[in-house]
Description:
Layout lengths: L8 H7 L13 E3 L4 E4 L9 H20 L20 H40 L17 E5 L9 E5 L4 E5 L15 E10 L4 E11 L7
Parallel strand pairs: 5-7
Antiparallel strand pairs: 1-2, 3-4, 3-6, 4-5, 6-7
Amino acid sequence: MREDGSFPVHLGRQYIPLIGSTVLRTKPLHHGFVGIPHYSKATSPLRRYGDMILHWQIEAALRHEAQTGKSLVAPPDANPDRSFLPFDAPVLDAIMLGLHPRESIIMRAKTYADLFWSSMLLFRKHYFEDDGPLPFGPTSSHVQPLRIWIGNSPEVTRGISGLLVELNVSARMLDPVKAGLPEPRLGDVWECVLESVNVYQRQQVVKPLRLIGREGAGFL
């Protein structure tokens, strides 16, 4: 860590995956990253079916406490009566078997759809100048460079990928070393121009022009 308490981007990027991922369980789990023995989380019931089930459970528990005047808080090793809940543990275990994979499939489909339509827009603009050319390509009379923030380590991933700041879409950058430029690092911000668009792979390729800054300098 630096004197101000911060640490390099390449270390912070490696630290994020250690937080862990979301899992579905009928009982709270230990959260090592936060450092607490029990942790659970619920979001809006309008977003996912699993969250709607959880809100049904919470509502039933609150109604039961209001009707009986007793708290449902019990020791971890206790086995209290939960027959008033809409879904019991075996039913929830059966639901979770298919719920989590389906949510992953839906999320992946939404991500791929967004990537496809952004690539289609850039494809039509870049190659056919649909409704006018992009200011970010060699066909424009006044080429306006883009900025790409390198979000994945070039040493770990295949190729150099990052986020195009002006367009808020992902892209792959050609190797700047082959053009006599500095070696890319995680957290770099490069000035670049749009080189090609592949709709089938949902991928944009940019050509590096110059290094703007390390450690995210020049991102804003």
